[in-house]
Each structure stands twice: as structure tokens, then as C-alpha cells.
Design a protein that fits this description.
Elements lengths: L1 H6 L4 E4 L2 E5 L1 H10 L4 H23 L5
Antiparallel strand pairs: 1-2
Length: 65
């Protein structure tokens, strides 16, 4: 799972100056290619995405994040 998360840096959705999430279609396709259990990925990835969005937007100083 952490390998997947580490590979999603290029799959971010951006609006203006804010990161709004990962491209989940690309994330699930990558998870499938990596041989991960898609049910587990579907359960865990949204929570990890929320943390990533919050942290990155805090780092770039975006008040909307």
C-alpha cells in the first residue's frame, strides 16, 4: 500500500493553487498493476488521500486546503 501511495505523486488533482486529491482511476489502475487487493485499496486510499491533501495544502500555505 505504501508503495502505491509513494507512486501517486504524479497523479494529483489540482484546482488553482490547491491540491484536491489523487486521480482515483489512475490510483486503482496502478494498484491493480501492482497486484494489490483492490477492496483493501478502496477502503484505505480515501483516508490516506485526505491526510495527503491536508498536509500538502498546509505546506504550500493554501488557506482552502
Amino acid at each position: 500500500m505504501w508503495d502505491l501511495v509513494g507512486r501517486l505523486g504524479g497523479q494529483m488533482r489540482v484546482a488553482g493553487r490547491a491540491i484536491i486529491g489523487w486521480d482515483m482511476s489512475a490510483a486503482l489502475a496502478l494498484a491493480r498493476a501492482l497486484g494489490l487487493n483492490l477492496m483493501v485499496v478502496a477502503e484505505l486510499l480515501p483516508d490516506l488521500e485526505a491526510v495527503m491533501v491536508r498536509r500538502i495544502n498546509e505546506k504550500i500555505g493554501n488557506p482552502d486546503g
